[in-house]
Specification:
It contains three helices and no strands. The chain is mainly alpha-helical. It has one domain. Helix 2 packs across helix 3.
Length: about 170
Amino acid sequence: MGETLTRLGIYWPELIAQAINFAIVLLVLWKWAYRPVMAMLEMRREKVAESMANADKIKAELARTEAERREVMQKTAQEAVKIIEDTRVAAARLMEAETQKAVAAANQILAKAKEASEAELARMKAELRKEIGRLVVQTTTRITGKILTLEDQQRLAEETNKQVAA
């Protein structure tokens, strides 16, 4: 076997020296290259895992915040509907009260107008009676040609008033 190795160009002393050199290079690379690279890769792996965990936390927080926002919006919409309904009820009550005030004012105006109309009618009737009485006395005086006494004038005025009143 020793000859076969020599024919292939393998010499034991060089092979052992190359094995020792390979072991030294392997030890140096292991200590100063492989370990730092592996440590750096482990740190990156931890950072990625931490980032993923933070991303999950952020997603959960976002979902919670969105749910809270929806809840607040729903409550706000319900409050707005309630405020609008309360405003409508208050407006209806105010409108009813104002309508009643306006009806009362209109009735009061109508009552005053009726009183004024009745007073004016009574005054006009009184004037009419006086005028009719005066005209009856004047007409009677002209027709009869006689001057009526105060007593005759009063009696004719009373009779005319009775007839006019009936």
